[in-house]
User: Fold these one by one.
Assistant:
Number 1:
Amino acid sequence: MHYQYHVIYLLWLLPPLAVLIAGGIRKAWIHRHEEHHHHGFGHKHGEGTLSIDMYAYHSKIGSWNPKLKIGYGLLLLLICLISNDPYVSFGIIFYTFFVTVCLGELDADHYIGLLGIPLAFMIAGSIFILFNFSHTPFSNALVNIPTHWGYVIITPQTAKATVNLWCKAFGAISAMYMMSLSTMSNEIFGVLRDAHCPKLIIELMNMMYRFIFILMDTQHRMKNSAESRLGYTTFKRAIYSFGSTASNLFLVSMKRGTQFYDAMEARCYNGDLRFFEEKKPVTKQQLFWVIVPTAYFVLVWVMTFQGVNINV
Amino acid sequence: MSTRLPKKQMWIVAASFAVAICFGIAPAANAMHIMEGYLPISLCVFWGVIALPFVIWGFFSIRKIVDNNRRTMPLLAMAGAFIFVISSLKIPSVTGSCSHMTGTGLGALLFGPAAVAVLGIIVLLFQAILLAHGGLTTIGANCFSMAIAGPFVSYGLYQLGKKLHWNKKVNIFIACTIGDLFTYCVTSFQMAWAHHSNVGFAKAMVTNMAVYAATQVPLAIIEGLISIVIILALENYATDEMKSLGFIEA
């Protein structure tokens, strides 16, 4: 047992935590005279809006160079996955919280609500990792829970694997959020195009992205009118209403697809959609927020590597 | 002094707990998207490599369609958007919680499995970026289970049923439900395979499937029912479009 290492390793989390707290205090100080609007906990989607997309457009770090942001998000994601080190993961969680909430000025409530999306998957997905089942109790187990059929067992190994997985997953999700909550979708497509993704795919993405909002809006209206006519009062009716709405949506989408093509062709569409893209140069400040933390996370990884990989 | 409950009462308490837990997890019945960071990097690459040939095949088939007739381009994009919207909608479910369709089985019946492989990977990318369902590194694994394995099974079963002259409603129901269940089995397999070092693969797989069965089996049946309603309505009201898609023989 080498638990004493971990107490020392925890000190590695202090700098990212300090950055986060300092950023939070600064943000609170800047906005001290503004009224705080409370929007309630949790997040909604599928109701005519895509919250993440909306936040991305309002992000204060939207002016950062998109290639830098996407590249950095992916780099942190990879560091988190490859290192498989809870200290690195927690460092990334704190740091990306700082970037999104303090630099990007997203509401902290909203961000925490978004972090809750993967929670249910993680709970359901770690049951089979945490619990072992056997007819006889294990001698090395942390807990042996007797049940009718046998024993439900948690061993130090399974507990460690679960904790590691949760840290890794939330680190990776935060890294992805840092990217998706600050980069507008059309910029992501632009970066993909520059990465030589086939033109047909980019074209499809651009169109799909625009069509999604049209369809969601249409669906929202259809659902409202079905609901106001008591279309969702019983289970059978709900299935029927949902199915009819969806098929109607399909019809509308196919009709609109043809109409759009006509409209686009009338404006000389020849298989190439071009959008205005702002030039966003990389500044020294942006590089600072990228290079220093990356170097720090690699350092943490190197320093805690041995201790984390000691078998329990 | 004994506070222990008799065995029968213990049973009832245990059963009610189990139901409560299932219902508690049910809000995330879309949970079959493997989340970012869940798979180790080697498996991310592995599933990506497995999914790649299908996506490339789908890409070439789409390019052929589009080169023949450019008019199909917005239709394909609309089809993709339709799959995205359908899969992001809350569907009515028995538990009153929010659950989502996969939508890809239906897509495979309407547009063919090749197109769905490509549209599916774009939809998954959008879901990761815009809805935080699934992730960027797990996109290969998700693509394989949702946009390749499930749709192929749905499509195959539907064609088989057509050959055997099954009742249309039954055929659609079976194709979509089994396709959905197959997606769920593949995802369970992917998850169990990634994390079985401590408990053994067979045990991990069985446990995981049992956990998800509570939400996925009812959901698959609901998805089958909804697909019937959608396709029947389409055949009545959108005969021309269905003919141009080749769903009904012209």
Note: The two ends of chain A are 6 Å apart (CA to CA).
Number 2:
Amino acid sequence: MLKLRRPPCFSQLCAAQRVVSQSAFAFLFSEMIQYSQTRVNTADELIAKLEDAGVGVGRRALELACWRERSSKRETRALWKSLFGAHADSLQKVQDSDDEFMIVEKEPLVNAFISSAPVNCAAFVAGGRTPSPPESGRLGRRLAAAQFPAEVSAHDNEEGATVLLIKFAPEVLEREKRQA
Amino acid sequence: MPAGGCLFVIVGTDDKPIYQAEFPEARSQRREDTLHLNQLTVIHAALDMVDELVWGTQAMYLKQVDRFNDFYVSAFVTASHARFMLLHDARNEDGVKQFFTDAYEAYVRLLMNPFFDSGAKVPASFDQRIRLLGKKHF
């Protein structure tokens, strides 16, 4: 008799760090983009759709990464590496602005097989241009989830690298000042 | 809440209560009602203490954050700032910490379900699991 078993992912996913092949990811991601593309009229809508898709991923990834560390610390540093397998190329502070930071990626994983597009598909990773609760995008969600409300958006810079611009909400800076 | 019992509440990232349980389960429901409300108020008041304490440390387990008459309130804050609050009247630090750690695992598993949205109803399996943990540790 054929016995139905619970899918292994749910019980085992939590146990160890798993690596998903890049082609599998790219395939699913491209399907997602194509699906979204047929349902939008403008590039902005597509960006919004991609950001929306990243919302749920962010919070889950953050919790999972922390849980796997097993240090019972609220440590958010390891997340980027656990998501993309490597640290971001660089983190810069925007000159003459206290609350803006940039994460620069020369070849972001999510854009690996995307040749040319009207929008930067790293919007999936970035997102959230509204600092209000329905923050979107993976990073936006993550920062919001870790109680750092911020606006995050994806841009191309002149050298073709992808820049995630993060602008923190004023209350975050105030809190940091209080802590210091 | 009978003597030696506990009240467990999870407050989600967006400050909405997600889940609530009592161990051991209350038998006489009628008299408990007013008492119950008081206890919830104690937990709500303790949330302010949690908000103050949480930026001073990196640890998830905040130990005992507040006390009210004979009740102690212990708290645990996850990476995405979901807050686990436990109201108890017996000092039992090891048990509480162990309970929180196990409850955190259950919570992460719950969260991993792509169909679970933080506003949605918590499934019965999660409730069962938490009650089992409550029985084990208290």
Note: DSSP finds three helices and five strands in chain B.
